[in-house]
Write a structure and sequence with these properties.
The chain is mainly alpha-helical. The protein has helices at residues 3-18, 25-31, 36-42, 46-68, 73-89, 92-95, 101-104, 106-133, 140-164, 170-185, 191-203. The protein folds into two domains: 1-43, Arc Repressor Mutant, subunit A; 46-203, Orthogonal Bundle (Tetracycline Repressor, domain 2).
Amino acid sequence: MKTKEKIIQESLSLFNGNTFELSTTNLIAKKSDVLEGSLWYHFNSKNDLVSVHTELFLDSFKTQRIHSESNDPKDLILGLFSIYEVLWDYRYLMRDSFEQFSKDTPKLYKRLVDINLEIDEWAKKTIIHARNLGVLILDDNDVDSVVEISLIIGRHWLDYSMKKYPSKSNLYLRKKGINLLIKSLYPYLSANSKAIMDLIYESN
């Protein structure tokens, strides 16, 4: 792996695990096995790393969201789950406070705000699309609650679960998160969708 790519990946891991604020450039350099000068050669600041992570997130999000817009119930359900993998991969972008960016780098701050709004809009649009397809049976009054629960799982599950189950692997916690999402949706699934979900649940 090239030095720049390694810095991008290791900084992402640190920001997810330690928060952006607590991940110093010295720590990023050590984790990337490079001198701090090499870090500065590739990136002028930690903000530049956030900018790179933002674009990588958007690329993955836009690629995976196509599946969640499918008219096939199984593809839609699996597409929904694949988005949650992306959210967990870049969860600090949805979790950390970037208020200081509003003054230092207002364009990047606006980008982060817009991303979070886009995720909220995607979640609601997907739940409504699932209802229109008959995958979910939901009253209008239940839509926002289901959306909010799913977003809480997407934004906060991994951080919560890592503290609660410190000895468990990341893979185990991700599978547990998907199963939690399934359980939150299960009461609203149509009979056919429950059969599909049961197969997915068993595989997890």
